[in-house]
């Protein structure tokens, strides 16, 4: 099967940063599905792994943590899927990625592809939907009120992949007032179109802008990017006993600014369940099916903003370059081998 990966961690400008090569088509065992890949999406995690993980023992690293495709074969213990089923999922960071013609994945973290979406449109959703869902409902517990704060959610980085779906889930499944941050006219419009009640500029101090809206201190803050840059500001604006969650890799993060307000700090890592084979890892397949139902009911929409064809090294390198620019809106998708 045709596969795209790397044998050496290189800057994306280098032609060998991502290359194509042939590998044997894998055979599913246990609860594994063999999926024929029709579309993949590119996430910041792809670029982070490419620049930090060195291939070992001459074996290539294959990236890709979002996919939509068709079940081509099933392991002997599979119970929920059959050959021919259309699926979408976000994969497992400890296993080879989805940038290949065929891919093995545990059925417990797989959802049924929304019928109303193309494979490309569906591939934009899994990783960010799982991240946003777990962040909102498992970590921040937004349906459990913060007594001393407003029923308001601030999403830092509202136009990114995670922010784009978090806005929609919060609007559809809660009664929260949603404030998103965006610094460009096009990203501001994107957030408003997805349902944000307010959009503030993250290139300027955030706390003052919250006050200018005439709102009480938010009970929940969801930081998707550049957390270190905004940390003092977020500690100032969040309500006492509020809940703060981040997903980025803030290397010099000090949580001390939150101490006086007794703010609880939460991390979200959507790969945790599959990485540690937790007893509840099947919850990810269930929530993807919930997202599928919401999409097909017209309650939420794909966050695909750019699609490139085909899935090849050149297009993947260009997608990585765009992600590394930190100026993308929504999700970048590649379709078709």
From TrEMBL:
Enoyl reductase (ER) domain boundaries: 14-334
Residue intervals passing through the bilayer: none
Keyword line: Metal-binding, NADP, Oxidoreductase, Zinc
InterPro entries reported in the protein's UniProt record: ADH-like_N, ADH_Zn_typ-1, ER, GroES-like_sf, NAD(P)-bd_dom_sf, Zinc-ADH_QOR/CCCR
Annotated SUPFAM superfamilies: GroES-like, NAD(P)-binding Rossmann-fold domains
The keyword Oxidoreductase is assigned to this record: yes
Pfam families the record matches: ADH_N, ADH_zinc_N_2
SMART domains tied to this protein: PKS_ER
NCBIfam families on file: adh_fam_1 (TIGR02817)
Entry-linked PANTHER family: QUINONE OXIDOREDUCTASE
Family: Belongs to the zinc-containing alcohol dehydrogenase family. Quinone oxidoreductase subfamily.
Protein name from the UniProt record: Zinc-type alcohol dehydrogenase-like protein
Lineage of the organism: Bacteria, Pseudomonadati, Pseudomonadota, Alphaproteobacteria, Hyphomicrobiales
């Amino acid at each position: 099967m045709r596969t795209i990966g790397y044998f050496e961690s290189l800057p994306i400008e280098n032609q060998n940063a991502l290359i194509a090569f042939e590998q044997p088509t894998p055979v599913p065992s246990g609860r594994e599905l063999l999926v024929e890949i029709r579309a993949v999406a590119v996430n910041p995690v792809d670029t982070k792994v490419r620049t930090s993980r060195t291939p070992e023992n001459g074996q290539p690293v294959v990236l890709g943590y979002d996919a939509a495709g068709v079940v081509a074969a099933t392991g002997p213990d599979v119970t929920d899927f059959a050959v021919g089923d259309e699926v979408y999922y976000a994969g497992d960071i400890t296993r080879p990625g989805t940038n290949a013609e065929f891919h093995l994945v545990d059925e417990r973290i797989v959802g049924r592809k929304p019928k109303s979406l193309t494979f490309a449109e569906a591939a934009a959703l899994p990783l960010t939907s799982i991240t946003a869902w777990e962040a909102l409902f498992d970590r921040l517990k937004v349906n459990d009120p913060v007594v001393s704060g407003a029923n308001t959610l601030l999403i830092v980085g509202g136009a990114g992949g995670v922010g784009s779906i978090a806005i929609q889930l919060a609007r559809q499944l809660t009664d929260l007032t949603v404030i998103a941050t965006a610094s460009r006219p096009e990203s501001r419009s994107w957030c408003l179109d997805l349902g944000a009640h307010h959009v503030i500029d993250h290139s300027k101090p955030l706390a003052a802008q919250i006050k200018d809206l005439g709102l009480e201190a938010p009970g929940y803050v969801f930081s998707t990017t550049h957390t270190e840059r905004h940390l003092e500001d977020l500690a100032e604006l969040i309500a006492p006993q509020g809940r703060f969650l981040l997903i980025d890799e803030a290397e010099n993060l000090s949580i001390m600014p939150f101490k006086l307000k007794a703010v609880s700090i939460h991390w979200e890592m959507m790969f945790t369940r599959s990485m540690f084979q937790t007893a509840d890892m099947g919850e990810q397949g269930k929530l993807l099916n919930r997202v599928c139902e919401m999409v097909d009911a017209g309650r939420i929409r794909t966050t695909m903003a750019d699609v490139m064809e085909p899935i090849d090294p050149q297009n993947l390198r260009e997608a990585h370059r765009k992600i590394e620019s930190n100026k993308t809106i929504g999700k970048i998708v590649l379709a078709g081998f």
